[in-house]
Specification:
This protein has 13 helices and 14 strands. By secondary structure, it is α/β, with parallel strands linked by helices.
């Protein structure tokens, strides 16, 4: 081309959660049965959608209004419903005008970073969900700016590291919190969140909080939505239905904007996001129409409680099976439906391998691990996929220097779930020489 047409941040757009699927499909073609534990889709894993929820959607699909455009920000009645739910808790108060719908939370995340001034950075956790780290890095054309989640403190933020990272980087304009966290499943206590908000206030930052898993917290752990704590600090909460209902294929998420009236620059930034949505016209109508009917249905609370209880049981069982393996660190998650396993420093080498009997499969995995720059935990993930058929995601792909991997806790078949984690424990022992 006569001029460079490639965006400065194009090289930062990575998403190993789905990239590993290509390798899995190649192995399936070679006869390896794959247990997909890489992506957080409860429906794809076989979690049933209750009949009453399907009937709500089916009835709405018979109404002509479900096929029309909706307003740019989303359906007025749904936004009023969501604003009322937030206001009911007694924290910061909002109106329907502070709620904006997007085509999935991924769409909202890309716009949140994409409409920042390029020099402005949002500091996020490490490890972090790939859509956030890639979006922030691509916007700036540089590596993500991050603060450390401490594996020795149940993956909670290192607040000293966070303060130093903000203090010594004047480009930081926003603070990202993911709570409950992806990939670790950590749930941050109320006092930790308050301390993070206090830092944002001290350094005049806005807060962005990804709360997609906010109603999937279990085992009696207590936390708070950011709206309950943010006070007068400008903030954006990111929410959706893909994990909670679950309805990931709806591609329906929204943001709630808090305290836009407190800072004219923040208000202008938010308006630019809304304007970008106007250019797209609007988000999908049908799932927006369904949200009030589903969330207010009398069977919904018990349904959600049962799902939380099952994830809690799965988390306990998975940890019991893996915590006895030497050379790894396993923190039991308190929310979401992921388990992150960390390799202890120094236990991984570039000589370790798992036995792969089929020659074609062995040749493929040997070629993969021989590629330049393959991280040591990614090497394990490739061998695990080839030898045991378990598709995980390397922790190093979540914008961190830690080595490990993330698996889901979504398998609904209890026997298969137990067998998967038994197999995983054996593979870890063999790989680490235990």
């Amino acid at each position: 081309m006569r001029t460079n047409i490639v965006h400065i941040g194009a090289g930062e757009l990575t998403y190993e959660i789905r990239a590993i699927v290509e390798i899995g499909h190649k192995l399936e073609a070679l006869g390896v049965p794959v247990q997909w534990e890489n992506i957080g889709d409860p429906v794809a894993k076989g979690e049933p959608i209750p009949g009453w929820m399907k009937r709500i959607v089916a009835d709405l699909a018979l109404e002509d209004a479900s096929y029309a455009y909706c307003p740019t920000k989303g359906l007025q009645e749904t936004r009023e419903f969501l604003a009322e739910r937030t206001n009911r808790r007694g924290g910061v108060q909002i109106t329907a005008e502070d709620v904006v719908f997007f085509n999935g939370l991924g769409d909202a995340i890309q716009k949140l970073y994409g409409f920042l001034r390029r020099e402005a950075r949002v500091i996020g956790p490490s490890p972090t969900y790939s859509t956030h780290s890639s979006g922030e890095a691509a916007h700036a054309g540089q590596r993500p700016v991050s603060y450390r989640l401490d594996p020795d403190s149940r993956w909670h933020p290192n607040l000293v590291d966070l303060r130093h990272s903000i203090h010594y980087n004047p480009a930081v304009a926003g603070l990202l919190i993911i709570n409950p966290d992806n990939p670790t499943g950590a749930v941050f206590p109320r006092d930790t969140l308050q301390a993070m908000i206090a830092l944002a206030r001290d350094y005049d930052l806005f807060v962005a909080c990804d709360e997609i898993y906010t109603n999937l917290v279990y085992d009696g752990v207590e936390t708070s939505p950011i709206s309950d704590l943010v006070g007068d600090v400008p903030a954006i909460a990111m929410k959706g239905i893909s994990k909670e209902l679950p309805w990931p294929g709806a591609r329906c998420g929204w943001i709630e904007v808090y305290n836009a009236d407190k800072d004219p620059m923040f208000a202008r930034y938010v308006q630019s996001i809304v304007d970008s949505k106007m250019v797209e016209v609007c988000s999908t109508t049908l799932p927006q129409r369904a949200i009030p009917r589903i969330l207010s249905h009398p069977e919904y609370p018990a349904y959600l409680a049962a799902r939380r209880a099952r994830y809690a049981r799965c988390a306990r069982e998975a940890c019991e099976r893996l915590q006895r393996v030497p050379g790894i660190q396993v923190n039991r998650p308190d929310g979401a439906f992921y388990l992150t396993v960390r390799f202890l420093p120094g236990v991984l080498t570039d000589r370790q391998r798992l036995e792969v009997k089929a020659p074609e499969v062995r040749d493929l995995v040997e070629r993969l691990v021989a590629e330049p720059g393959v991280a040591l935990d990614k090497r394990f993930v490739y061998y695990l996929l080839a030898a045991a058929g378990i598709c995980a995601v390397p922790l190093s792909s979540f914008s961190t220097t830690e080595f490990g991997f993330r698996v889901t806790l979504l398998e609904p078949d209890e026997e298969r779930f137990s067998a998967t984690f038994d197999t995983l424990a054996r593979a870890l022992r063999e790989y680490l020489g235990g």
